Amino acid sequence: MYAVIAIGLMVILPVVSIAVELALRHTADILLLVGTWFTFWGIGVRLMIAGLNQVIRPGFTAQNIFKIDAPEAWAIVTELGNANVAFGLIGILSLPFPGFLTPAAIAGGLFLALDAVVHLRRKERDTNENIALVTDLVIPATTVLYLTRALGVV
Q1: Quick one: which of 21, 133, 150, 154 has the fewest CB in 10 Å?
Q2: Residue 10 region, left (φ>0) first, then alpha (ψ -120 to 50), else beta?
Q3: CB distance 106 to 139 below 8 Å
């Protein structure tokens, strides 16, 4: 189930949203669309869902994701959840408030790139962690593409 949600939010929904917008507009700034939809789905919705889950069920995340069977760790997981909710909210708000797009893409892209480094450093990763690693690399890559446009490089 995790794989379906992660791939859906990080790849399928952004690509479908870009395709729909391209079909409706017929001409569009593709890099802006990449930034808009990967930020909304991959940073906004994904991190909001993860954050709410961590705040509501910190024990689940501690045990099943981090392999820590200690209720003392729940406070740390809850704080991580609060950060994910904050990043997620900025990503979601980037859709109705375009001025939020670049800051959300930078902050969320960096956050997920750093998460990918953490996953890479772990010698033993299960399937879900490998999925997290790959999907955590998608957003920083799309962020770089978008930023080349936003910062006038392209």
Answers
A1: 154
A2: alpha
A3: no
How many whole angstroms separate alpha carbon 118 and alpha carbon 114? 6
Please answer whether residues 56 and 110 qualify as being in contact, where contact means their C-beta atoms are separated by less than 8 angstroms: no
Distance CA(23)–CA(62), nearest Å, equals 43
Write out pLDDT tens, residues 25-38.
877 799 999 999 99
CA geometry: angle 107, 109, 115, nearest 5 deg: 105
Crossing angle for the helix pair 101-121 and 30-38, to the nearest 10 degrees: 60
CB of 33 within 8 A of CB of 148? no
Instruction: Please report the pLDDT score of residue 127 as a whole number.
Output: 86
94, 36 Cβ separation under 8 angstroms: yes
Which amino acid, one-letter code, is at 74? W
123 CB burial (10 A radius; 0-12, 13-18, 19+)? exposed
Banded model confidence at residue 154, pLDDT cuts 50, 70, 90: low
Candidates 44, 52, 35; CA nearest to 88 is 44
